[in-house]
């Protein structure tokens, strides 16, 4: 087994936000013992203080890794988002600091798609309002405004991993599926792409949002888009809270023009289960409110724990960055009997020759070399026959353009 330049017993992992125990189990099995877990998100100064000595960090969707926070984490080697979304991390700053960020791009897609479909059925039957009424002692046995899902049109905004999975499941129930995406996508089954958002909104009985949080999606569903939806339409948002103007949605629901909504994500969400949730949507019987649990199933969380922990351990043990969301991707073989230099640098001319020069001066033979670059950052990995001396390591760290370097012994 490879060793890191820092002894494994000294490498510290911090896992926040109630990450599934499968992650800790995998990291321990890989020989790491310093693993702290917390059930909640940390922010700002509290997060910075914690990160001062941390080498590997695991978060979910609530912990904000801003440039400011990253600057307070000098030892951070890599970060794992134990979820799909990575909008909570300043990915460019992380890259410029030599910190690869990993996520689990597919592990909870099915969980989200199942929840959305269930909500669509419940809303078409008016169940949230009927359920609330019956709990209050009321009784409304009526078929009025209660509909089957079969034959209805589902409009999917964002036809990626979740959108396509939902598309297939919805068609299996007899729905018609239309979708809007900024990229031209191969429609699955009988789904069809609609090239203008207002057209999709106007055609759909149910609109479900599955876009990432970015500049193009911020408040993309505002008053005009809600007005473009069918009378009696239903909106489902299990993407990110910043995609929908909640005040505008509240107005449409209160007026009765929209029939119902299911909202899982909010512009401001509590950082732990002990904080109060605030939203103008509270108290509306035709709205299903869920606490950002679209991906929260035992199946998904256990898989995510393993997937992201594996990526962190692999980067620590072997330097592989495959599937990193912000970093040059290099897939590396094992390096038995060899020593491995991992060097992250600004992608400027002369860095590779300077590294080669250091090894040449130390009479160290280079057995293999891997290089990849991304957005101004280069990542070179060299397997060498003999251990580099302290002097060589110092010289490597001083190569102009170096962001960070690490040696696996
Ligand atoms: N509620 C939850 O618990 C939960 C769970 C998982 C994911 N999510 C959220 O769902 C999002 C989508 O997940 P995914 O795995 O399907 O992502 P994905 O990257 O596979 O798909 C996103 C799709 O959105 C499209 N898109 C991007 N910008 C767009 C725009 N302005 N207009 C239209 N389409 C646009 C992309 O082209 C892509 O096809 C994630 O980014 C995450 O924020 C939420
Ligand atoms: O991006 C995601 O995968 C979801 O929003 C789930 O986030 P969570 O792990 O914080 O529940």
TrEMBL record:
Domain ACT: 340-409
Chain segments annotated as transmembrane: none
Name of the gene encoding the protein in the UniProt record: serA
Record-given protein name: D-3-phosphoglycerate dehydrogenase
Top EC class for this record: oxidoreductase
Keyword terms of this UniProt record: Oxidoreductase
The enzyme's E.C. designation: 1.1.1.399, 1.1.1.95
Catalytic activity reported: (R)-2-hydroxyglutarate + NAD(+) = 2-oxoglutarate + NADH + H(+); (2R)-3-phosphoglycerate + NAD(+) = 3-phosphooxypyruvate + NADH + H(+)
Its biological purpose: Catalyzes the reversible oxidation of 3-phospho-D-glycerate to 3-phosphonooxypyruvate, the first step of the phosphorylated L-serine biosynthesis pathway. Also catalyzes the reversible oxidation of 2-hydroxyglutarate to 2-oxoglutarate.
Family: Belongs to the D-isomer specific 2-hydroxyacid dehydrogenase family.
Pathway in which this enzyme or protein is active: Amino-acid biosynthesis; L-serine biosynthesis; L-serine from 3-phospho-D-glycerate: step 1/3
GO molecular function, one term: phosphoglycerate dehydrogenase activity
């Amino acid at each position: 087994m490879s060793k890191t330049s820092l002894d494994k017993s000294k490498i510290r992992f911090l896992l926040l936000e109630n990450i599934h125990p499968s992650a800790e189990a995998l990291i321990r099995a890989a020989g790491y013992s310093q693993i702290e877990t917390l059930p909640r998100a940390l922010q700002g100064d509290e997060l910075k203080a914690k990160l001062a000595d941390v080498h590997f960090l695991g978060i979910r969707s609530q912990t904000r890794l801003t440039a400011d926070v990253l600057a307070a984490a000098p030892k951070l080697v890599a970060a794992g988002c134990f979820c799909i979304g990575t909008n909570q991390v300043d990915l460019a700053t992380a890259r410029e600091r030599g910190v690869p960020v990993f996520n689990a791009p597919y592990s909870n897609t099915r969980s989200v798609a199942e929840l959305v479909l269930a909500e669509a059925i419940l809303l078409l039957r008016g169940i949230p309002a009927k359920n609330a009424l019956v709990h209050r002692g009321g009784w409304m046995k009526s078929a009025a405004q209660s509909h089957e899902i079969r034959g209805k049109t589902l409009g999917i905004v964002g036809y990626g991993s979740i959108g396509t999975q939902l598309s297939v499941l919805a068609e299996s129930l007899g729905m018609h599926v239309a979708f809007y995406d900024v990229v031209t996508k191969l429609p699955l089954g009988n789904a069809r792409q609609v090239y203008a958002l207002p057209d999709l909104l106007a055609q759909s009985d149910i609109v479900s949002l599955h876009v990432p949080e970015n500049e193009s999606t911020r408040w993309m569903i505002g008053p005009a888009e809600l007005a473009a939806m069918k009378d009696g339409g239903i909106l489902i948002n299990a993407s990110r809270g910043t995609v929908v103007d909640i005040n505008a949605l509240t107005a449409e629901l209160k007026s009765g023009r929209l029939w119902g909504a299911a909202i899982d994500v909010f512009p401001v969400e509590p950082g732990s289960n002990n904080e109060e949730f605030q939203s103008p949507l509270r108290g509306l019987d035709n709205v299903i409110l869920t606490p950002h649990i679209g991906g929260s199933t035992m199946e998904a969380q256990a898989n995510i724990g393993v997937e992201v922990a594996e990526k962190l351990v692999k980067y620590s043990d072997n330097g592989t960055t495959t599937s990193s969301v912000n970093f040059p991707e290099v897939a590396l073989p094992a390096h038995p009997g060899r020593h491995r230099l991992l060097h992250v640098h600004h992608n400027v001319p002369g860095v590779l020759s300077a590294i080669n020069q250091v090894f040449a001066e130390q009479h160290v033979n280079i057995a293999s070399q891997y290089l990849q670059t991304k957005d101004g950052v280069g990542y070179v990995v060299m397997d060498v026959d003999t251990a580099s001396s302290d002097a060589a390591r110092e010289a490597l760290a001083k190569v102009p353009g170096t962001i960070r370097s690490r040696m696996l012994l």
